[in-house]
Design goal:
Mean pLDDT: 88
Number of helices: 2
Number of domains: 1
Strand content: under 5%
Number of strands: 0
Distance between the termini: 56 Å
Shape: elongated
Oligomer: single chain
Helix content: over 70%
């Protein structure tokens, strides 16, 4: 059986959408109970709550992508260092 830990960030990424929806619905109910009729709050507070609910699910996937990008940058720098001639040697 393959190691399932490699797929956890992708699974969490998929679970972030239902978590965001639940957070949005919670935010709508919260604003409706506390400050009904204020249009600006009715728009931004639910989106903010949804984003807060999604972040714990998104962070592992973003972390994996960032590590892959850093590894690619390091590989490019190492490749450039091996290709460029040394300036100290007469040539």
């Amino acid at each position: 059986m393959p190691d399932a830990r490699g797929h956890v960030p992708v699974i969490l990424l998929a679970l972030s959408l239902p978590a965001g929806l639940a957070g949005y619905l919670l935010g709508v109910r919260l604003v409706g109970a506390i400050a009904p009729g204020i249009d600006l709050l009715e728009l931004f507070v639910p989106l903010f709550v949804a984003g807060l609910c999604m972040m714990p699910f998104l962070v592992p996937w973003l972390d994996r992508r960032a590590k892959a990008d850093l590894a690619a940058i390091r590989a490019l720098r190492d490749e450039e260092e091996t290709r460029k001639p040394d300036a100290d040697e007469p040539g």
